[in-house]
Amino acid sequence: MADLGLNCNRKTVADSLRRQGLRAKGARKCKATTNSKHSLPVAPNLLQQDFSADALNQKWVGDITYLWTDEGWLYLAVMLDLYSRKVVGWTMSERMTATLVCDALRMALWRRKMPTGVIVHSDRGSQYCSHDYQRLIATHKLQCSMSAKGNCYDNACAESFFHSLKVELIHGERFVTRDAMKEAVFEYIEVDYNRNRRHSANGYLSPEAFEAQKVA
Q1: pTM above 0.90, yes or no
Q2: Which of 25-39, 95-109, 116-130, 201-215 has the lowest mean pLDDT?
Q3: Number of domains comprising the chain
Q4: Which H/E stretch holds residue 59?
Q5: Beta-bridge partners for 72
Q6: 143-146, strands of its sheet edge to edge
Q7: Which domain holds residue 109?
Q8: To the nearest 10°, the Cα dihedral for 166, 169, 174, 180?
Q9: Which of 22, 88, 164, 186 has the smallest CB count inside 10 Å?
């Protein structure tokens, strides 16, 4: 609002909502998606909760979440660039497998023109520790990083994205089919979030506007 020359006071907005009988959407507790009870090798935590980045393709973070439809669960895997908080890779599937996270990473690599040396951080779930995912990391000369066991704060930026998606898109809505959910998530990520949603870490620019400004 400030860039439009409008002053906005939180208490004034809250009073206005109260008079209209409205309230902001709140977060709900989400199901845990991490299965860390496995014997696969775990990568060290290279990120150490340092979510800053000086340029594109220094640090990416990935995670998985559940989305409910009347036809059953859908699983969404994303990959965000911490420089701009842009979702650079994502995919959805009816199954939460290694393929899900590999496809999200492949999209990020393709969109970012195959960078090397990127720190790619995730939790220590079996999908991220899988041979297929680790082979993809090694093939493209990326640096694998994983959160400490049971510490959601180590991947706070990915958690924050899922919070925004669920509060702004999912909660209070009914999705009859998986296809309807896929269409809504596509619209949210590619249009609403990447192109239009302002982010405090970007000086209240959208991820794409922030990247465009810095590149220019």
Answers
A1: no
A2: 25-39
A3: 1
A4: strand 59-69
A5: 69
A6: 86-93, 72-81, 59-69, 119-122, 143-146
A7: 30-215
A8: -110
A9: 22
